[in-house]
Amino acid sequence: MNKTAAPLADLTQYEMVALESSHNLADAHAHQWQSAAERDVIDMLPKLWDESQTLTQAELDRQFLQNFFDFHGQTSMAANEGRSWLSYAASISMGIIATHLRLSRKSVTLIEPCFDNLYELLAHNELEVSSLPEDIVFKSPDAFAALALHEVGDALILVDPNNPTGSTSFVDDGERFRAIVRFCARHGKTLILDFSFASFLRGRRPDVYEILDDSGVTYLCIEDTGKTWPTLDIKCGILTVSADIRDEVRDLHTAVLLNVSPFAVRLLADFVTASKNDGFASVADVLDANRQVLADAIEGTELELVRPDSLVSVAWLRLHRGTATDLQERLAQHGVHVLPGTHFFWSDHRQGESYVRVALARDPEAFARSAAALRKVLTTS
């Protein structure tokens, strides 16, 4: 049996322990097997390698960005060059944003709950960070009015769809999102959006960059591939910014890195195309199947699924008895690893003691075994 010392310092440390287990339901990276279309890409690896050495980095980056934004329906940005830069991971993009906010001496309001490394990156830059409960932006009848009643810092950071809850502003043809943008534009707030889970909106996201640019708001947006495509953590983060801060953010970005591996960019471009060709079914179907298996596994136990606005690659579970800290440790002792809800509530861990998060992006057969192991602990301990 594996034992985890609890509580650990942050969620990533829980995920690191889980990597040692065959029942790793902790990290949200895409660990499922590749679809038939994606296996075709893998069969072409020697060809992709040679092309990566032949084409220029600029050509490869341009093709990847066009494929990526086209897949997400972001047509205005697919045709717009010079305001998007690549990095090895979304967290690198967030680190650059945190540096920009520190140099700009901005106070920050951050959505809660969210994955705690967002808060940590801000805190490490000695930024003043206040909490914004996600219901204010994602559940209030009038998001503009609700934000106006809340004390929002110089910069507002949202994760949309949110990790871990799946809550999103894209539930009404983008009207809620437009209200958030309108609030930030009118009140001079910098809007920072983490779209790392936006693939799972399944076509419900409008062209957000057109909305942002038309509003005149200052913005920074993060996109990511790592939560969507099973590429063994060969991934790419994308940072896109408004025209008014392009030069200053570009200088921060070039201080961090020159480029992402041309092979990684070439491979990811074809994975995106494969998903477009199969209608995203190879990813969405796996998540839907695993979500149902999980629902069956926890039936009659102290856990229940919280209904999400969007079917993201994680499940947020409410705990009716005991605490998340105790449950996570009990499961870990039997080799089953989930994330406690505590650290997602970065301003007060006690608020998360009634929740745990389960990752769904796993091979269905392996996930079924892990779900069975989860149920065994819940029903016998």
Automatic annotation (TrEMBL):
InterPro entries: Aminotransferase_I/II_large, PyrdxlP-dep_Trfase, PyrdxlP-dep_Trfase_major, PyrdxlP-dep_Trfase_small
Molecular functions (GO terms): transaminase activity
Keyword Transport applies: no
Alphabetized CDD domains for the sequence: AAT_like
Gene3D superfamilies recorded: Aspartate Aminotransferase, domain 1, Type I PLP-dependent aspartate aminotransferase-like (Major domain)
UniProtKB keywords: Aminotransferase, Transferase
Keyword Metal-binding: no
Domain Aminotransferase class I/classII large: 105-367
Matching PANTHER family: AMINOTRANSFERASE FUNCTION, HYPOTHETICAL (EUROFUNG) (PTHR43510:SF1)
Protein name: Pyridoxal phosphate-dependent aminotransferase
